[in-house]
Structure formats: C-alpha cells, structure tokens
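Below is how a single chain appears once it has passed through the pipeline. First comes the sequence as given, then the structure the pipeline wrote out for it. We keep one example in the README because the format questions we get most often are answered faster by looking than by reading.
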Amino acid sequence: MDITGIEDVRTLDRREGPYGEVVLRERGEHFEIIANGCFLMDTSDGRSERLLIDVALAALPAGRDRPSVLIGGLGVGFSLAHAAANPRWGRITVVEREQAVIDWHLEGPLARISGAALADPRTVILPTDLVAHVRGSASAYDALCLDIDNGPGWTVTDDNGGLYTARGLAACMERLKPGGILAVWSAQPSETFEEALRNAGFTGVRTEEVPVARGVPDVVHLGVRPA
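Resulting structure:
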C-alpha cells in the first residue's frame, strides 16, 4: 500500500470536563483541538485569529492609550500571542473555561506558541466560562475579541448560543467602554448575525474576510459601541 502523503495523527491528551470531551492531537507538524468531536482549530495557519486582534485595534478611536482587550477563548494561542507581540495593547485578559486547554499552554506543547505571551505582565488568564463572565463581570474593556465557537450559528455547546442572542449582545455592550469594539470570529459569514449586531445597538457593523484553501472564507464580524 502506498502511504506517501499520509500524516501521522497522535492523540496527546484527552479529558472529560464539565462541558464534555476535549482532545489535543498532533497531526504531522501541527496541533489541533477537538471539542465533543467537533474540530475547533489547529496551528496550520492562524491568519484569521491574528486578524481578529488587528481589526479590533485598528477600529478603536484614534489616540486611545494602551487599550485593554478581552480575548474569549485561548484556543491554540494565536490571538493571545499576536496581541502580546504588539506593545500598543495594555491589559490583555484571556477567558478560557477548559482547564485542559490552559494546561496545554502552561506546561504542554502549545507553550511554544503562547509561552512569551503568558509570561507578559499584561496578560491575565481567567479560568471561567466566557458567557458567565460577560454577563456577570463588572469589568470594562476597549475591545472584546471572541473566538469560542465555529461561528454564531455553529456553537461548540448549546450554552454558548446565549452569547449571540439579544441578551448576550447587550451584555457584550455593557462590557465595552464607549467607542469599544466587539469582534467575533466565524468560520463563515452571517448576515443574520450582522443584523443582530445592529439590532443590539452596535454601529459600524461590517465583516472582514480571510480566504482559506477550500470553502467559504473565515470572517471576523465587527461592531462598535456608540461613544
């Protein structure tokens, strides 16, 4: 049998948590995270995760000094590493509900991506659920950069769906300072979600695209809290 081009796939860790099963796999030279059997992300590219951070920073009002950012979902660490590499950001808060994912970064193979960012004094990791944090926290941020699902219409768990409802978007609005930016990563564009952002009171709603090798482009949905 010709096995040329077949990648070796190894399961590095598998854990059952309060939200189901999470798995870290190694595929060739890359790592990938699977949640409840659903592919979330891997380390093969990272352009859209970096765009999530860049477009939020670029959309902030001119002259805002050392803005704070909440990154929803640690994932493979691309968004965190990219934010920490930019000295313009001030406080960088990452909310990650899966302790396994945090461990893979602190003491596992994903440390090669996020190690320097986690050591940055601006970085804080909150081991909690993003939806609960957005609804229950009193903190205010200049930007919310959210990447916890494959998109508003393709959630990892049913509970995450509440983030994209009118109530969830209202809570996001409350967590933002005036003129702050909400940026939401998605595996595909959604006109329905754009309309939900407008109905929730966000202005300047738009969608930035990142072409992918196959299929529809990844996107970042953006909205601004009115000043």
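DSSP finds seven helices and eleven strands in the chain.

See the next section for the split statistics.
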